[in-house]
TrEMBL record:
Functional note: GTPase involved in activation of the TORC1 signaling pathway, which promotes growth and represses autophagy in nutrient-rich conditions.
Family in the record: Belongs to the GTR/RAG GTP-binding protein family.
GO cellular component: chromatin; fungal-type vacuole membrane; Gtr1-Gtr2 GTPase complex; late endosome membrane; membrane raft; nucleus; Ragulator complex
Subunit: Component of the GSE complex.
Superkingdom to which the source organism belongs: Eukaryota
Pfam families: Gtr1_RagA
UniProt GO BP: cellular response to amino acid stimulus; cellular response to nitrogen starvation; cellular response to oxidative stress; endocytic recycling; microautophagy; negative regulation of autophagy; positive regulation of TORC1 signaling; positive regulation of transcription by RNA polymerase II
CDD domains: Rag
Lineage of origin: Eukaryota, Fungi, Dikarya, Ascomycota, Saccharomycotina
Name used for this protein in its record: GTP-binding protein
Molecular-function GO terms, alphabetical: GTP binding; GTPase activity
Amino acid sequence: MQPLDTLYLESTSNPYLEHFSTLIDLAVMELPGQLNYFEPSYDSERLFKSVGALVYVIDSQDEYMNAITNLAMIMEYAYKVNPAINVEVLIHKVDGLSEDFKADAQREIMQRTGEELLELGLDGVQVSFYLTSIFDHSIYEAFSRIIQKLIPEISYLENMLDNLIQHSKIDKAFLFDINSKIYVSTDSNPVDIQTYEVCAEFVDVTIDLFDLYKTAGARNNSKAIKNKETTPELKNVAQLGNDLIIYLRQMIRGLALVAVIRPNGTDMESCLTVADYNVDIFKKGLEQIWKSSRVTPQEESINS
């Protein structure tokens, strides 16, 4: 869905549940803002006990003082029934604000939230804040960080990616969920938003134009990639004008490795030969992590 198409979406009036499967199985539940979680008819205790993260959206272009008070009340109850819950706040619609106003809004919301929590005796509670918009990749970046907190094997994945980039002339590597463009892991180097955007767009281009990239002997239905059916391995390579190489390779469970390779004078074929060999090893390691995953069959949930 294009960002402008969201203008025609109706407001959420009833709870909506959607499943999300990659290295772990998640259930994302969207709840309407006007829902009263403390009504006797609503089983709030069961809801908050079952979630791994509470995602609370604040409209940065609207009056948000009441929203902050409501957030504090929800957090007070949620922490009583589930002290391990992660609280994530999206300061949304920042595309309409200047850089100075963005910083001011974030500072004020963080300060007001801290004051509300202090009054409720929750001064030690950790809350993460993200500036987001549907008109850029900030919303994907935020949810990527939220999802990573729910993956028990995240440290192993980061170490594996660090080892991969160290031996493959790779500047940056992401492990993307193909359908959502959320990256479930990356190496320990800082994430540059422009690099992330290039890699995310490369995933889109590869999926949308899959028929143009696959070999003549593998002309099957490209929709099978999104449906996770058995298909030839998805792979795509492109060289940018600055000689950087974007490398995409399908992994397991709807995941794809996307890496930025810096040749540094080495010819492209040699770089890709080394990358292919090391990515094969990485994929085998990923399969082992999945087989020995500590995640139980019971799904974790995100409540937003």
